[in-house]
């Protein structure tokens, strides 16, 4: 549902992180209050992206554990129709559920590291 909106959000956040870091590094006329405000904004944007990626990683891990949880229940005592339903659940749980940014990148902690590296690379250029 939010895949395309998340892609736009990640792209804009990457640009904002880069621009804020550049302003903090280059602009010499900023007073302490402005510097603290910009640094907290930079931290807030980074934290926001981190939280999306962290939750996406947990969703992926938890979705892979569904098959194990289903198998761990006493399925052998259930009626045949319920056994078939549990089998379907186990088969579907073999593919992890992923939050993605526009289908472009999964929101995982590795993606967060890549975003921060890209922001730093843009900043240094």
Automatic annotation (TrEMBL):
One of its GO terms (cellular component) is plasma membrane. Its main location: membrane. Pfam families: 7tm_6. The chain crosses the membrane at residues 6-26. One of its GO terms (biological process) is signal transduction. Keywords: Cell membrane, Membrane, Olfaction, Receptor, Sensory transduction, Transducer, Transmembrane, Transmembrane helix. GO terms for molecular function: odorant binding; olfactory receptor activity. It is a multi-pass membrane protein. It comes from the Eukaryota. It is found in: Cell membrane. This is Odorant receptor 45. It comes from Bombyx mori (Silk moth). The lineage of its organism: Eukaryota, Metazoa, Ecdysozoa, Arthropoda, Hexapoda. The gene is Or45.
């Amino acid at each position: 549902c939010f895949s395309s909106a998340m892609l736009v959000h990640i792209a804009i956040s990457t640009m904002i992180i880069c621009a804020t870091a550049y302003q903090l590094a280059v602009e010499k006329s900023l007073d302490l209050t402005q510097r603290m405000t910009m640094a907290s904004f930079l931290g807030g944007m980074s934290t926001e992206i981190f939280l999306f990626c962290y939750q996406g990683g947990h969703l992926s891990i938890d979705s892979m554990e569904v098959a194990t949880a289903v198998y761990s229940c006493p399925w052998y005592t259930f009626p045949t129709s319920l056994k078939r339903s549990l089998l379907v659940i186990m088969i579907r749980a073999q593919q992890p559920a992923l939050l993605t940014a526009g289908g472009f990148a999964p929101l995982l902690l590795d993606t967060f590291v890549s975003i921060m590296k890209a922001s730093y690379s843009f900043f240094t250029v």
